Amino acid sequence: MFQKIIEKINLKYPIDVVSKKSDKLMFLTVHKNTAVNTVQYLKDDLGFKHLVLLTAVDFLEQGKFQLTYLLNNPDIKIDIGVRVLIERESATMESAHSLWPTIATYQRELREMFGIDFPDSPGVNDEFILEGWNNTPPYRRDFDTKAFAANFYHQRNSRENNDPSAHMKKNLYPNE
Amino acid sequence: MSLEDLYRKTTISPDGEEFEINPIEDYFCTDKPEEVKPVQNILEKFYNWARSESIWILGFGTGCGAIEMRPLMTPRFDAYRYGIQWRPTPRQANLLIISGYLSTKTLKRVIRVYEQMQNPKYVMALGSCTINGGMYFDSYNTIKRLDYYLPVDVYVAGCMPRPEALLAGVVKLKTLIKTGMAEGANDYANRFDWYKTNQKAVILNWDMPDYNW
Q: B49 and chain A: CB distance < 8 Å anywhere?
């Protein structure tokens, strides 16, 4: 089943890496320029008409973001994830809201949480859950969440730790 | 509503007449809350007894703890026998239960809701998240201790507290009210500037009047 699909896609768009996870799930890595076209081809011609999700992974060391369009074919009940690597610096990706209007919400979230821009996507620059955020986008791996939370929010001092062995040593054998 | 809507501006009426509006002064009260001095007499004791026996909770859940309020209404725990009931609007409620973690986005709405409630009003905070951040202590988006932003009368510890713990908290609150110690609203009025400074430090887009009941 997957072999036929890969052959069909390969006739139109190049595939870099094929990673088959099971009989029901496969990931394809494609070029940035042809990614949305590949997704459209899968949707219109191969029956993958349900968008499960669009998500991103931050590969800080390689300086890349990996976007995954996870698609489902409800007739033959298999999933295909279309992966695309984009540059981390001034990350931009073509919007796919013409295929599914709901993808605009995912793109809005990615814009806020990862700082990936999707030009022309409806409402992509509106605030999603962070209101007035002026720092590094929080899902980027170079954003130190713990340090930010410690500096930004008022903190309650932690309890005094009465570790039994340390307490006994201090009280009974202070000189050792 | 955005921040620009609060500024003084010129508008054109349906008749074509131009006039100037200043939304903060026209639509909102800018006065600070005032302290209501507690009195110590037998009538006040009677009032406090009545208040403690009619705790009306605002049905507003902020975090996962909201799910623990549902069983309270059911026959098994039956909170109504304590004089508790849930109300749909802050105008009719006098107990605000902060049920769990508070993101800064929700905190803004909670502050607004608290200020819209009528005196006497009380705040109960559920769960470790409101006490010290709980499992969200390193989150970029949730506050760690509630009493910097709102005056808290009773904390109920746990993650999450069971409905029994919640009932114990309510009983504790009733004792506080009866002895005249639940003075959170007066504390809020007295240290209004301190609370506002703390609130504005974490709410980055403050697009509402300072006190907007």
A: no
